[in-house]
Design goal:
about 55% helix, alpha/beta, about 475 residues, 8 strands
């Protein structure tokens, strides 16, 4: 009982009413916002400033002193100033000796200096314990009560006790500390705020390239071809018709690309006969951005659903419907109901709606707030089993949509397949190969490999020997 309670005490933030004083060097926007948040959380705050006069912008419960006097009142000092102003700290080396200095600065460019700002600070003050932190939290987030996207605070430092003190302060502010290791990780942490969607670059560029290809492909077949060979000006198709062909093609292709790297990984493991060798770099990067690809695919699927709902409101749809009605009236003919076509049409719509529903469910479970509430087995079941179910439903939706047109020569303008036919290449490939991989004779062998079995253990031992030797 005592052991468990002591462990809980070690992991819990300091919740006592009396908290240690924190000193902040710098009265800029972030220094003031951080001080205000600390005072709200019960921390006494003292500012170290060149001027001891209290400004109206400084939190009213904070104390403002000179740098040396303020540093003597606290064990943890927040350095809320830019790197180019660090030199004055060398004059305070004796006062700052043994103190925990928290560097919160950022740069204007990636890898702007040979070393990180925190490492530079540690070189200037070797007697102090430098910790990197708080640089990924904005002043606005602190003032507004912190957003979910800004709750994580990356921490790194060489002194374990110093890091723990800073992490306790982070928890006391209602934030989540993330230990990134030694001070060598400071440059990586300083680069985080300068990176714009680093894990989204490849998916976005891929989507842009693929979207442009599909757009001009549809434009050529549905607008340019009909204008040249049928003398019909359907240029207005660019607003609704063409995008509503591009969106589902993009959604299905990107959805297939989410599961294609898993197929490649399984094939590579079967070929190598081991799981202890790294995948190629291109496959590693591809697998790391599967979530982003899936969310972009879901966005295109949602756009397709919206554009499809507004299709009956178009002037072209009303004109075509009235034309058919007038044609039947003039010819005194009524077109009987084609039950086969009715079945296919209803099935096509039902599969599309079911596939979209499961797709949305996958997107919801990928949110951190939802994925954190399920265990690994549940998350894997949703993302893998239900993911393949959604892919099957969406692929069947497009296959039934095509129907007999796959074998109709009139569907191949300029001898080119229609857009929906191109969109089936990736998902159909994924589903066919996945069907082969789940065959008992193949799945049993793949499961053994993933459980640690190796076809050639000697190769693994040689690889480990090389790695250990290089480490020494």
């Amino acid at each position: 009982m005592n052991k468990n309670s002591s462990n809980m005490m070690a992991l819990a933030p300091n919740t006592s009413n009396k908290r240690e004083t924190v000193c902040i060097f710098g009265t800029g926007d972030f220094g003031r916002a951080l001080g205000h948040k600390m005072i709200q959380s019960g921390y006494p705050v003292v500012y170290g400033s060149r001027s001891s006069q209290i400004s109206n912008l400084i939190p009213k419960d904070a104390e403002v002193l000179g740098h040396a006097e303020a540093a003597q009142k606290a064990a943890v000092i927040i350095i809320a100033i830019q790197r180019q102003h660090y030199n004055f700290l060398t004059k305070l080396a004796d006062v700052l000796h043994g103190k925990v200095l928290v560097d919160i600065s950022n740069n204007l460019k990636l890898n702007q200096y040979p070393e990180s700002n925190a490492e530079y600070l540690a070189q200037l003050l070797p007697g102090s314990k430098v910790v990197k932190g708080f640089n990924t939290v904005s002043a606005w987030a602190l003032q507004s009560g912190t957003l979910d996207a800004s709750r994580q605070v990356f921490i790194c430092g060489d002194d374990v006790e110093a890091k723990q003190m800073v992490m306790n302060i982070v928890r006391g502010l209602g934030l989540t500390p993330v230990d990134k290791g030694s001070l060598l990780a400071a440059q990586e942490i300083e680069n985080y705020p300068l990176q714009l969607f680093p894990t989204w670059k490849f998916p976005i560029f891929l989507s842009l390239g693929l979207g442009l290809f599909y757009f001009f492909y549809c434009l050529a077949l549905d607008v340019i071809y009909t204008y040249i060979y049928e003398n019909n000006n359907f240029s207005f198709f660019i607003a609704i018709t063409v995008p509503n062909q591009v969106f589902p093609a993009m959604a299905l292709t990107l959805f297939g690309l989410v599961y294609l790297p898993g197929i490649f990984a399984a094939i590579i493991q079967l070929y190598r006969g081991t799981k202890y060798r790294r995948f190629p770099d291109w496959l590693d990067k591809w697998m790391l951005c599967r979530k982003q690809l899936g969310l972009i695919a879901l966005a295109f699927a949602s756009l397709h659903a919206v554009f499809t709902l507004v299709t009956p409101l178009r002037a072209f749809s009303s004109w075509r419907t009235s034309r058919q009605i007038v044609s039947q009236a003039l010819n005194n003919q009524t077109q009987p109901l084609d039950h086969t076509n009715a079945w296919l049409n209803d099935s096509y719509l039902a599969l599309g709606m079911l596939g979209f529903f499961v797709f949305v469910l996958l997107g919801i479970t990928s949110l951190p707030s939802v994925s954190n509430s399920v265990n690994w087995r549940e998350f894997r079941f949703i993302q893998s089993k239900l993911g393949y179910l959604a892919l099957i439903l969406c692929t069947a939706h497009v296959l039934i949509y095509g129907g007999d047109w796959f074998l109709n020569p009139a569907a191949y303008k300029w001898y080119l397949p229609d857009t929906y036919m191109l969109s089936l290449i990736v998902p159909c490939t994924v589903l066919v190969v996945k069907f082969v991989l789940i065959l008992p004779c193949v799945d049993k062998h793949l499961t053994k490999i993933r459980q640690g079995w190796e076809r050639n253990p000697r190769y693994s031992e040689q690889s480990n020997h090389v790695i250990n030797k290089s480490a020494v």
